[in-house]
Amino acid sequence: MSLSLESLLKILDYSSDEIYVLDKEIRIVYVNRNCEKHYGMTKDDVVGKYNDDFFNDGYWTPSVVPLVLEKKTPVSVRQQTHIGAELLTRAFPILNSNNEIEYIVCTATEIQDFKRLIKKEEPNLTNSADEVFASTIITNNAKMRKILRFCEKVAPTDSTILIHGQSGTGKGVIAYQLHKLSKRKDGPFLNVNCAAIPGDLLESELFGYTAGSFTGAKKDGKIGLFEAADNGTIFFG
User: Fold this and answer.
1) Full-model pTM
2) Euclidean distance between CA atoms 21 and 29, whole angstroms
């Protein structure tokens, strides 16, 4: 007996991972209900829209799509969403007979779930779950290996580091790698999407404010990003 489409879609909604499907135009054609938990949006908010519209508005960073379009092979990245979810996202291209991408299927696991799985299944690991994740940055590219070696050299210092590259190339992943190799690795890592902060709120977002500082301010005030990242790392993307 075969499953109906309706039954199959219901089953996918029970997946513990997010499932997110794009067509060849990079339009979102399906997402399961984990979309609400990761991005604060319903399926109706997302399906039929273009992936880049949400990425450019800062709903998540970095984007895995450019890497898949370039390589046409499965790609894994660490992502952070605008509501604070940290995801291990894997993207798989589905190719036609002409080796052209027809669909991109993405799955995303929350990092905290990934850590718990590692600790539960391999309790005798000498590495922490974060170190295990960091070790998943795998490359055969000579330039990327040089960058990773450079990260090992500069991470222990207190220098400010500039990471540059095109949108979606993984600058946030490198920033997190630097954080985990630094003496601040046990502190917070904040990945800040500068484009999502209105210019007139920049100062209050960076430095915080006290109660009643301006119209619309929270009654208890708010700490700034610099204070929140104390003893850790802040990455402005």
Assistant:
1) 0.51
2) 6
